[in-house]
Structure to design on (364 residues):
């Protein structure tokens, strides 16, 4: 088509410069040959049980597919509120917690505010800030243990009218949990604190920050059913906050973002908490077994509160290890520039973890 290229170029010139400069988020999943063990996305090792799937499909069959779901998913909001002992008005449901994090970043830090991060942390936060038109400030975590620098982070959080700290705890990719005390200390220095607890089910039960909500009405906690509840394929997340903050966040979420199927699955999973509890316990036991095996291979392993481990083997570059493992049929998360010598590996099933440890030994 003659002139087509010029027309496209002129359209591209309209793209916001900050978006044009952004490298598209990519997830490098090497293809591998033969059987490949995938331990790169922090997915649950065990699937939703077949009988629960059948029950969800049955319930879904009884619903009217031509109609929109109920606005705001009130049934699901009630079930989540009951689970955590809060009011339904405090719950915002979304298409995965990612959608709600983006909404909250836009609402609080968008249009010229500053999002405060402690990298290495979830790489999408940076992209969310950019989409929302927020600046990013950082208080980096340092090896070998990547602990949060609580004093420096709190001091920076207190600095500026529109500084919005976003803390991930347990932190992806390093794994560090944060106790309620630490969360409360940071919150007290902040106008508002966004706390992403996607992995908290795998941490110490005392790290769950939701019981802090009554005393910290400026705390927003993000949770997901993608990890401990094994529902990543259906996209269900939620945020909990004071009802007035929840109302503001809801304004930035498009209506009906939780579809019928996701809603039925979420309701069924919340009715059967024993499934998630059992799966979490299995992951915690395996996490400790793999951690000890890594230590015996000479690795340095960061404190692990999630369903993954973050480690380095002195003298081995992260990129080389990543490729060597992939060549041996085990795919882990590609190292990030923020910690190029470190590898993040998801805790899988017992046999997947054994395959990972065998491959790692083979790399030495
Ligand atoms: C720290 C963190 N927050 C949020 C998410 C997004 O989860 P969801 O599947 O609920 O969108 C992820 C996904 O991996 C994550 O690692």
């Amino acid at each position: 088509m003659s002139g087509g290229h010029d027309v496209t170029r002129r359209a591209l010139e309209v793209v916001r410069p900050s978006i044009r400069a952004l490298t598209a988020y990519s997830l490098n999943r090497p293809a591998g040959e033969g059987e490949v063990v995938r331990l790169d996305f922090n997915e649950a090792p065990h699937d939703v049980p077949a009988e629960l799937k059948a029950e969800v499909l049955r319930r879904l069959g009884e619903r009217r597919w031509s109609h929109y779901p109920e606005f705001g998913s009130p049934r699901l909001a009630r079930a989540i509120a009951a689970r955590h002992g809060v009011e339904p008005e405090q719950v915002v449901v979304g298409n995965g917690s990612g959608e709600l994090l983006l909404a909250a970043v836009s609402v609080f830090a968008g249009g010229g505010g500053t999002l405060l991060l402690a990298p290495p942390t979830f790489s999408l936060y940076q992209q969310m800030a950019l989409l929302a038109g927020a600046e990013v400030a950082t208080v980096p975590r340092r090896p070998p243990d990547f602990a949060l620098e609580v004093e420096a982070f709190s001091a920076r959080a207190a600095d500026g009218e529109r500084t919005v700290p976003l803390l991930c705890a347990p932190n992806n990719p390093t794994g560090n949990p944060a106790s309620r005390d630490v969360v409360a200390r940071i919150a007290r220095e902040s106008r508002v604190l966004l706390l992403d607890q996607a992995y908290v089910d795998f941490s110490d039960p005392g790290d769950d920050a939701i019981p802090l909500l009554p005393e910290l009405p400026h705390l927003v906690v993000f949770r997901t059913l993608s990890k401990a509840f094994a529902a990543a394929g259906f996209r269900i997340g939620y945020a909990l906050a004071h009802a007035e903050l929840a109302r503001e966040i809801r304004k930035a979420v498009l209506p009906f973002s939780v579809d019928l199927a996701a809603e039925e699955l979420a309701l069924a999973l919340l009715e059967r908490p024993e499934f998630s509890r059992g799966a979490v316990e299995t992951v915690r036991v395996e996490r400790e077994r793999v951690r000890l095996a890594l230590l015996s291979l000479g690795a340095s392993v960061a404190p692990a509160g999630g369903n993954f481990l973050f480690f380095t083997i002195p003298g081995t570059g992260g990129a080389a290890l990543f490729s060597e493992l992939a060549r041996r049929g085990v795919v882990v998360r590609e190292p990030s520039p923020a910690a190029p010598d470190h590898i993040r590996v998801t805790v899988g099933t017992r046999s997947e973890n054994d395959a990972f440890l065998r491959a790692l030994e083979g790399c030495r």
Notes: The chain has 13 helices and twelve strands. The chain has two domains: 37-48+275-363, 50-272. The mean pLDDT is 95. The radius of gyration is 21 Å.
